[in-house]
Amino acid sequence: MAETILSVRNLTQQFKGVLAVDHIRMDLEKGSIYGLIGTNGAGKSTVINMISGSIPPTEGEILFGGKDIGKLDAAGRAKAGIARTFQNLRLFSGQTVLDNVITASQITRKYNLLEMLACMPRYRREEKDFSERAKDALRIMDIERYEDFQADNLPYGLQRRLEIARCLAIRPKLLLLDEPAAGMNPHESLKLVDDIRVIHRTHPEMTILLIEHDMKVVMNLCGYIFVMASGRMIAEGTPKQIYDSEEVISAYLGGIVHRKERA
Amino acid sequence: MEKVKLRNNPLFRFLAVVLLPLLALLLAAFTGGSYYESVLVLFFINIILAASLNLTNGITGIFSLGQAGFMALGAYASSILTLSEKTKNTMVRNMPEWLAKIQLPFIPALIVAAVFSMLIAGLIGFAILRARGHYLAVITLGMVIVIKSVLDNANNLTNGSRGLSGMARYSTLPVVVIAALLTLFILYRIRISAFGRAMIALREDEDAAASLGINYSTIRLMSFMISAFFGAVGGGLWAHLQRTIAPSLFYFNETFIILEMSVLGGMASLSGAIPGAAILTFVPQILANFSTGFTLFGIQIPQINGLTNIVMSVLFIVTIIFRKQGIAGNSEYIVSSLFDRQTYTGLFKKETYTGFADAFRRKKSA
Ligand SMILES: Nc1ncnc2c1ncn2[C@@H]1O[C@H](COP(=O)(O)OP(=O)(O)OP(=O)(O)O)[C@@H](O)[C@H]1O
Ligand SMILES: [Mg+2]
Predict the structure, then answer these.
(1) Which of A128, B89, B240, B255 lies at a 20 to 30 A Cα distance from B83?
(2) Residue A109's domain spans which residues?
(3) DSSP A86-133
């Protein structure tokens, strides 16, 4: 059995009046692709926000690589190896594509201000390394030819890819993707599925958890799926198990329509 | 080929913004008039002040109104360090003996003063940088008030509201030109390093920056301290141009002047400090000739009190309305054309809006 990279216990988020996430439990094994599905407002993004440290949980614990990361802030978790995209794109829109990604690859920076001002070897070496790693990430997402473009001049689909490239540049152990195909046309989302597969193949150590509404994307990519409804985890299993589960069909997939599709 | 407007032409910009002042400089050298020389010295000092403010306000998105305070710290600390023991003892009553005894050459005094100001900024920043947006702006303005009242009341160090005088005029043209170029160079190096990218990331999107491992408090504190360092350099140079300083000189008026230079020039651009400083230095000098009244086509225009203030305020308002990003926008065409060939090609790219209102928009969106 592969080792567990992330394990979440009793994770809960109580917003004012809304129990957005209700004592959920999740275990992710190293090197697999997981899906997290559920209706609008089910609490999926909130789960990612809590894992990545964007918002503190009301209750529960998060173990990453066996260590409790509850005390780490978002920046600390990124350094520990958790990368995430946002449901609403959060690019540095006025910066170039390359600068966006270098801002991520510089997470390994060791040089200090004085070394930089004196232009010491370590500064030059690391800066070179940042931009090489950034370019690698752009190449993986197939957007390296746009490196000089200003981020918000890219078409929407490419901006989504840029956000993923930015995550890859920090070389994460766990990659959290919040609806990466949202707003993409069918052609773009097919290409994205291919690319995520490539990422998976070329980074066998990296675990991916993705939120997605498009069932084709999820069923195609994920080895294991979690299903949420109104803050609770109502089912989990392989795509086939989920596909066959009555509970999931009635709670999420909209029963009848879906059965027809299957017939 | 795409047609480029004259004002977007890098050569034109370079000529307008770098060569014109240099020409003026030459002119001053030839005329040798001490008046012109003083104005030019002031211009270069203003570049330092505006550029240092741009680091926090434009690049990091910390909207600070506190630069006059750090300028004051630099002015006072450097003056106390360069004045002779005799001068200090006759001017300031009960100055601690060890401090009165110290007398340093100008440049070391300036550096010590800047480091002092930077450390104070570290303490203050640690306490206040949790605040954001206009709250922080108001707090930094409060800081200016506090620093002024400390200077007013620390009689045995600062001679209170009477101020200090008798400093030598160390701020000659070569000194300030070198200081301004060094300041721009260092700030620009910071801007293109990992630290600068982190600052810009925080300005553009705090949450995204955090998700990439950028530490909010550390980077903001760093920006604030570096800004205070160069603010103090500007203050120290200014004190050794004016040769007499008092707490009231580092108050709201100076706050506004530095802010206006920074905004007019373009907060998000370090080199924007150059056109900003040029306007705020030269225009008031020109207007001063008119404010006493003049004859236009035979019509006698009477004396206009506060003409300078009116014109500068109108200019400020017009800029905020029609070109929030200031003259330079967020491009570093001057510095990059001087120091970095690579980004030079970026000149023809569309400029994005990163301006005054932007800094106010940086609120944490959960
Ligand atoms: N910051 C917040 N403050 C208060 N309530 C919130 C906040 N964020 C989310 N919620 C509420 O929590 C619930 C879960 O939201 P969440 O964004 O996690 O859902 P989701 O599963 O990601 O939905 P979608 O598919 O629409 O993205 C919703 O009812 C939402 O209104
Ligand atoms: Mg969501």
Answers:
(1) B255
(2) 92-171
(3) -SS----TTSBHHHHHHHHHGGG----HHHHHTT-HHHHHHHHHHHHH
